[in-house]
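Lab notes, practical 5.
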Amino acid sequence: MIVREGKLVSTVNRIVFAYYKIYGKFIFSSKSILCDKNSGCEVHLLTCARDVLLALWCLKSFYYHSGLSMRLVIHDDGTLDDSLVEKFQKHFINCEVIKREDADIEMKQYLKGYEFCERYRYKDFFAHAIKLFDAVYYSRTKEILLLDSDVLFFKKPIEMIESIREKKGFFMNDYREAYCLPAARLQILFNMAIRSRINSGILYLPDKKIYDLNLIESFLKIVYENWEEINRIPEVFWVEQTAWAIFLSKHRGMFTRLPDSYQVSRQPITDTTVSQHFVWDGSRDNFYKEGLREIKKADFLRKFNKQFKRN
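Output from the prediction step:
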């Protein structure tokens, strides 16, 4: 009986996932957004061909609920072809797409002399390295809002809006310590208290002048000194987030933690949920099964198209 119930639940989950994945494609026919190319803050988002659908939902749910019109910069991990670049430029007027092949050339000069930054960005390439380095390099503004493509917004992000207005940095609260090395060990290595459970899925940098390549270089040197321990899943995927944790710990007074209504992973979506980050811990399918179900229930697409019909 238990086996049969398990199979039934599995079948239902597959059907629900398939249904909302089909529903998700309606975002491709939604209205375009006019991004302010002269805004004082930019949104930077790294994505890949596999996650274009997620990225569109992330960005459109953010722009709709926030009411902001910041300039948008998309960073290609190397898999976006011309048709996908055009798709972003069609849906987000004034959007800039940085192709990886171009960034690889330009970032060489920026990272010249930073041995371990270069190694992480090129030799042992992980797409997360683009988020860590390229966003700051390519930004035209001193303020940068980093978003991951697997984040969905369900309500007005009041705390984000107010913090951006007041030029106060912020980050998400993770449900676990997702660092490549234990925080206690990092604290000894860097002689400072390391902030716990930082998630960089939403991260606002109020002034890129405080961005510190020397600090990141010293951290990555430690990473490679412990490479045998770190080069395994999931630790190796947490290197970028750990780098941000060290940076945000050093500048503790400039950054606040977003409230728990900005959720991560499998937390249930409730009436108080502002956003959800569907990370690679087995919760990614919930972007469709849970996230888009809430989006559809709220009649998001109709309201969105009504708001942006003039663009």
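Observations recorded by the TA: Residues 2-24 form the longest helix (23 residues). The mean pLDDT is 95.
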